[in-house]
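sorry for the late reply, my laptop died twice this morning and i had to redo everyting from scratch. anyway the thing you sent over, i finally got around to it. pasting the sequence first so we're on the same page, its 240 residues, then the predicted structure underneath. double check i copied it right bc i was rushing
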Amino acid sequence: MPRGDDFEVSWRNADGEHRCPLTEADTVEFEAGLPVRGFPSYRGQRHFPGLYWSATTGGHVGFESWLERDHAMLLDFTPQVTGLLSQPLWLFWEDDQGKRVSHAPDYFARFEDGRGLVVDCRPLDRIDARSAAKFAAAQAACEAVGWGYRVVGEVDPVRMVNVRWLAGYRHPRHGADDGLAARLLALFSVPSPLVARAALLGDPIAVLPTVFHLLWLGQLTADLSHPLSDATLVSRTEAR
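ok and here's the structure:
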């Protein structure tokens, strides 16, 4: 297994392409760079590439499959994440046979406390020996520079359906009425049924988008392991 000083890293930003030993790149803002490779689209391909608009960055994050899109959405849904980039860097190293190996992880996320997180997305039952070796090396590289590393597969379907619903209200326009948001936070100071409580402030059709936006931001909270419904208990996050 390669060690930290055996890795090189390359990345792109507005100034061009850069490359250096990984151990010298701990201060690089990878989340503010550009993807190191594109997202090809062609007839007959089995994956579904596209762009996801991130509320965290205010820009688009690329994905090459719906699984990657879901995990981009989950990172965007994490309040502590302040930066996110897809295909953020190339890692280079030599394997045990001296063969040059490269790997571009799927995502780099930055947290508000400065921590970095590298994410690879792959259904766990589709990780072959070659991929497993690359993921193990990527984990060793991340540990060497103090980043977290995850290989993530399918998400609990109920939780994912709920997050996709809330993502429909992630844009700041749904929280533009600061007065309504403040009243909702006060109203949900104790766990209360979603629709009945929101209806106290007006027509639910007008009020619920702001409730969902506050749930997206993490200022309100609910149990997303069960389908969201009229009776879902919602509360201000500090109340739990």
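Residues 129-145 form the longest helix (17 residues).
thats about all i looked at so far, will dig more tmrw
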